[in-house]
Amino acid sequence: MGAGPRMEDTRGPRHRSAVVAAMLAAGALVAQQVTGKATRDALFLSTFSVSSLPLVMIASALASALAVLAFSTALSRRSPARAVPAAVAAATVLLLAEWGLSLVRPQWAAVAVYLHMAAFGATVVSGFWSLVSERFDPYVAKRVMGRIGLGASLGGVAGGVLAWSAAGLLPVPAMLLVMAVFNVVCLLALTRMRASGGGEQGAGSGGGTGPLSGFRLLGEAPYLRDLALIVALGAATEALLDYLLNAQAVAVFPRGQPLMSFFAMFHTGVGLVALGAQMTLSRPSLRSLGLAGTVALRPAAVAAAALLGIMDPRLWTALLARSAHGVLHNSLFRSGYELLYTPLPDHRKRPTKTIVDVGFDRLGTVAGGLFTLLLVSVLGGGSARVLFAVAGAAALSALAVSRRLHRGYIAALEESLRSGVVRLDVGEVDDSTTLATLAQTGLTLDRQALLREVAALREERTPGEPMAAPADPVLRAVAELRSGKPEAVRGALHRSVEGDPVLVGHLIPLLARNDVFLDVLRALRRAAPRATGQLLDALLDPRQDAAVRRRIPRVLRGCPTQRAADGLLQALGDPLFEVRRQCALTLSRITERPPAPLLPRAAVFAAVARELEAGPAGWSEDAEVAEASTTGTATSQTPTERGLAHVFTLLSLALEREPLQMTHWAVRSQDPALRGTALEYLENVLPEALRRGLWPLLGVRARPTRAARPAQQVVEELMRSGNTQAFSRELLKRKLPRS
Q1: Do 329 and 399 sit in the same domain of this protein?
Q2: Pick the residue with more confidence: 125 or 113?
Q3: Which residues neighbour 732 within 8 Å (Cβ) at sequence distance 6 or greater?
Q4: Are residues 501 and 429 in the same domain?
Q5: From the CB of residue 730, how many other CB atoms can be counted at a distance below 10 Å?
Q6: Residue at 579 is within a domain
Q7: pLDDT for 27-77, tens place per residue?
Q8: How far apart are alpha carbons 248 and 647 in whole angstroms?
Q9: What is the mean pLDDT of residues 430-456?
Q10: Greater pLDDT, 300 or 83
Q11: How far apart are the C-alpha atoms of 5 and 137, rounded to whole Å?
């Protein structure tokens, strides 16, 4: 037997090394970003008047947009494993050059650092996460992404603390050297991460997924346009608040190191509070407010802080408003915002997400900078209250758009459910989940968050308005399947001739009902090739009804795929004997004819060892199965007989099937010679550990070690013995359990 597909082990030395390297790279990269923001602000405001800030913000936004285009082109030609280290190395060289420039031309250096942070900030961070997603397969990524994200968060806090500590010891330009050191650490970690990985992923083909197709999709999808509007309004608000905070800080703190200390403490505090909010409030917020409600928290808090700023436009209100935006943006807003992409199919998400996340963010920054420049030019020093008012208006606009996000999310989710792009088990809501978000972000969407979105939309009906009969055929089928009436269920199944995967979540619970079981079984077998994952999820869920779980393997008998075999093999460790027995029988059935799925011999032998260790005490029938067997015509089996039949079924998955089936028949024979030949065959083909567990159940004492005959010779004798005993394959089939 060949080995089947193998998942990567996150505990192996190679992967531990890669995870540690990724955590270190993320921490160094984010620490450099936080230190860079504090250095950028202090260096610029120590050299230029605060009135120059809107112009450089606009210029930096344009520089960032150009950098995004250049980096996207690089990624289309080379893998992130090459493009990201090259970008970090280039940024390191430029930092050293900017430090040298600051010694002779401080003003030029201040502008260069501002543009540098805009060009290499978000683009390199985005490229790093692309590298992480390609370095680890989805199975491993879901387990390590949280640790890598924690490394990034700790790096942000460490960068802020370091910047604050160094502010009193080093001149501001010297922080550029500290940033270069962070980049060197990041480069070393990226090299280690690359060395501990497999081969590089090639550059993806970019056919049909460029910027033009992304803008076309934005024009066609109102939901995507609302997401882009939320991003742009948030960036414009941030630009206004940045100016207000910088202007108030310059008015209070002396230029140079005191200003550097202030910005370092600010970014450190925001990072710490955001980390705490992410760890403690993200889940409760998603549960109680839903996705759109969680996203709306940021503009709501900013609007409240802006109102305080209008009444008292001083440093504390500017600090409060900017902190509220920063903390919520890096924690709760990001948690809800990323999940809003869940229902979108890949062909819409891939070409538009970068445009929305980066392009519209920079567009909002430009708009906010232009607005600030205009108001400061017209109103001069009295512009603070007006800027707070504009920031509050932008936040309230984002709050209004979030209401449309709620509706758009529900509509997109319904469309994806009908098309099968997102498969949620709505009939068994305990198993509902948004699988795309787990591979990509490492976050888990609690099922209640999704249910609240659907419930809230239902509540928008006019009170007293009757529920109309569903016109959509899928909704009509769902209503009939959930009606509890056998005739309605059969009618829905009759119309769904093709076995629609969207209905699978509603069909699975019906397997427990004897009155419609055969109809549901036939329908699920038609859908099984396209809904294998849903069936396996229900099979492996210990909270699922036991009757459902022991009947799912019978559904999968019509699905002889490797994916089904892997799931059934995993279910051989289930606590319920009848579930394990049905899985073994189904594995035996689907591996009868080529091309058969591959079952690793070691995994099969491990399942046999578990059964032998459990013994007759673990081979008891479920109460419902026992009752059904006593009412039938078949003779009831003892636990040992049932268990041995199951053990031989398992062994037939790893050993030659026909001799093993005859061996099972022969060990129960009253003929000592035939029984002895069967035991000798087992002694030849079974590992010693399995023999030691099996012999007592067969009533055999430990056999003395002696020279074993070749297995083929024993098989031939077994075949001859079987012929002398009027053995036939049809008789064997009637004796051995099939289902």
Answers
A1: yes
A2: 113
A3: 661, 662, 665
A4: no
A5: 7
A6: no
A7: 898 888 888 888 888 888 888 887 787 788 788 878 887 877 777 667 656
A8: 77
A9: 38
A10: 300
A11: 13
At 167, list the tokens: 């502010």
* CB of 591 closer than 8 Å to CB of 597: yes
User: Is residue 441 domain-shared with residue 477, that is, in the same domain?
Assistant: no
Full domain range(s) for residue 500: 473-560
8 Å CB contact between 348 and 217: yes
Q: Are 586 and 570 in contact (CB under 8 A)?
A: no
Q: Same domain, yes or no, for 432 and 510? A: no
For residue 107, is it within any domain? Answer: yes
Q: Are residues 506 and 418 in the same domain?
A: no
pLDDT band at 296 (very low <50, low <70, confident <90, very high): very high
Q: What is the pLDDT of residues 226-246, one digit of tens each?
A: 988 998 999 999 989 998 998
Identify whether residues 681 and 721 lie together within a single domain: yes
Residue 527 falls inside a structural domain: yes
In contact, 168 and 39? CB cutoff 8 Å: no
Asked whether residue 407 falls in the same domain as residue 505, the answer is no
Predicted local distance difference test score (pLDDT) of residue 729? 44
What are 457-474's pLDDT values in tens digits?
444 444 444 444 455 677
Residues 370 and 477 in one domain: no
Question: Which domain CATH number covers 431?
Answer: 1.20.1250
Mean pLDDT for the chain overall: 76
Spell 383-409 as b/e; 16+ CB within 10 A means b.
bbebbbbbbbebbbbbbebbebbbbbb
How many CA atoms lie within 13 Å of 182's alpha carbon, on the beta-carbon side?
26
